[in-house]
Amino acid sequence: MEKKEQISFGLRRITTEQFAIIESAFDESNGNIELGTGLRFGFNTEKRIVTVLLTINFSQEKGPFLVLEIGCYFEIIEEDWNNLFNTETKELKLPKAIAIHMVMLSVGTIRGVLHAKTENTAFNKFFLPTVDVTELVKEDLVIQTNDAIALK
After folding, report:
1. In which order are the strands placed within the sheet that holds 85-86?
2. Is 47 a member of any domain?
3. SS3 of 79, please?
């Protein structure tokens, strides 16, 4: 597989995989709030899609009170896909810079979805702080076939 500096891709779909406000788990008088995050990657070979699944949850002592997971589906052009996907091992090697860029776009997307889902509620005051995505993606990613995600 030839290594290429630039990969051409486009955001093709956004899904809200999970969203919940659990009011009983939130204590307004308790200022101790923790933010949890999760990140997973998958792919669909037929459609040349790389999926970034990003999860956030705000929690207190009783557990999470605000949970959101989104999926961002990025289509890679065929020529670039053929350079990234190994047909023998069924693995997709995503260069670090492209993975970081996709995660950065996903973080901005989840921030907007969080605002839209909590608008006109008491939970609209919770924001996703800035995220250093270079801490989330430290090297080129190798995504295994068993990590593949079926498109709905």
Report:
1. 85-86, 91-94, 141-143
2. yes
3. helix
